Amino acid sequence: MIAVGEFFLKLATENITYKDIGKMDIKLRSFLVALLVVLLASCANTQRTTGQKKYKIAKDVSIPNATQIAVYLPEKTANSKFWVNATNNWHEPGKAFKESIEKALGKYFTNVVWFDQASDTKPNVYMSLSPDWDYNSGKIEMDMQYKIFDSSGKVLVDNKYETSSGLNFHAPDAAYYNSSYQAVEKLAVNFLNKLKPNVTQFPANLAMNQFALEKFVNIKKPVSSGTGFFLNPQGVVLTANHVIDDCLLIKVKQGELLTDATLSHSSQLLDVAVLNTNHEIDTYLKLRDKNELTLGEKLTTVSYPLKGLLESSPNMTFGNVTSKKALTGSLGLYQFSAPIQPGSSGGAIVSEQSELIGMVTSTLNVTNLAKKGVIPQNVNFALDVKYLRKFLDKNQVGYETSAEQSAANFSESALGTAVQIACYQ
C-alpha cells in the first residue's frame, strides 16, 4: 500500500503511474479521484486576463499618463522558475510577473522602463516591486510588497496587495500572470487617483546610476550570503563569483565593521571575484610562494555558513588536502576534507604556515549519490592558489606572498581575515 504522505512526496518529486494508483488503498484512490475532479473542474478553464476590467479613475486624472516610471524588480524574482514532475511542465512566475507589469502599467502610463543601475536616464518616479507566491486550495496566492519614490529618493508610497487566481496545472502561467496583473493594476490606479502624477509635480532629478540602491533592498534580509577574506592592506576582498552574482548591492561584514563593496574583477570560469571596500585594514592573507600542494597537508578554513540559523558567527573547521584533482572537467580545483556548509563558498583555505593555498568553491552533491546508496563524507572543492595568483596578476590586483611576511598562528590568520558577504536584490 502507498500511504497518503508517501503519495504526496512522490507527486511532488516523481511521476505517478497507473501501477502506483493500483497499489493504493480504496480510501486513498477515492481521495485522489476527488482531488483531480476538483482541480480539473475549478481550474481547467483558467486563462490569462485580457485586462478588460475597468477601475474608476478620478475625473481630474487623464490617461494615458506621460510620467516616466523606472521599475526595479529583483533579479532572483525576475528569473524565478521551477519544474513540476507531476505535471511535466515549468512554472515561471518571474516571467509572468514581468509581463503583467508591462501590460498593467502600460495600460495607464506611456513611459515605463526597467531600472538599469548603469543608465543615465532620469525618470520622474522609481517603483520597487517584491512579490511572493504561495499555493492554497487550487489557487495561486500572491503577496506583493511595493514602494514608490520620487526622483530624489523620497518614499511616496509603501504598501502591499494580496491577490489570487485559480491554477490550471497544465498551463500554470495564467494563474501567476492573473494574480500579478490584479495587484499591479490596483497599484497603478491608486497611484493615479491619490498622487495624480505628472512631469511637473515629479521632476526628473536623479539618474538611475545616481539613485541610492539601499532604498530598493531590505538591509536586514539579504537574499543570500557567503564568505570572503581580506587580500591586502587596501581592504580588497576575494570571494567566489557565485556569491555575488546578480547582486544589486553588496555588503561586507567583519565584527562591528559593515561596509559597502563594489565588484572590481570576476571570472565565471574560475568562480572568483574581487571586491573593493576602500577600507584600510591591518590583517590580511598572503599567498603561498610556491605552487605545489602536498597531499595530506593540514589546512583550516573559516566561513559564515547557514545565514539566519547561526547568526553571523564565523565557523572554523580543520582538514587535509585529500586529492590534487577534483571532478572530471573541472579547472584548477582540488579536494579537501574540512567540513563546509551553505554559505562557506568564498572562504580562504589556509595552511599550517598561515599561507593562502586556495578558496572554497563547492561541495559534492551527496543527495543524488545517496539515492544510489553512496554517501561520501566531506568531499569539498577549492580553487588552487596558483590559479588565484594567475587571475590576480592578469587583473593587476595587489597581493603579498608568504615569503614577504612572517607566518603567524594559522588559525588566527584564517579567523582574522575572514568576512561575511551579504548579497541584496
Salient structural properties:
single chain; 425 residues; alpha+beta; Rossmann fold; Thrombin, subunit H; 3 domains; 6-stranded antiparallel barrel; 24% helix; 30% strand; Peptidase_S1_PA_chymotrypsin; serine-type endopeptidase activity; hydrolase; protease
Protein topology:
Blueprint: H1 4-13, H2 18-22, H3 26-43, E1 69-72, H4 75-78, E2 82-84, E3 89-91, H5 93-106, E4 112-114, E5 125-136, E6 139-150, E7 155-166, H6 173-195, E8 224-230, E9 237-239, H7 241-244, E10 249-254, E11 257-267, E12 272-276, E13 286-287, E14 298-303, E15 315-323, E16 333-336, E17 348-351, E18 355-363, H8 366-371, E19 380-384, H9 385-394, H10 410-417, E20 418-424
Helix pairs in contact: 5-6
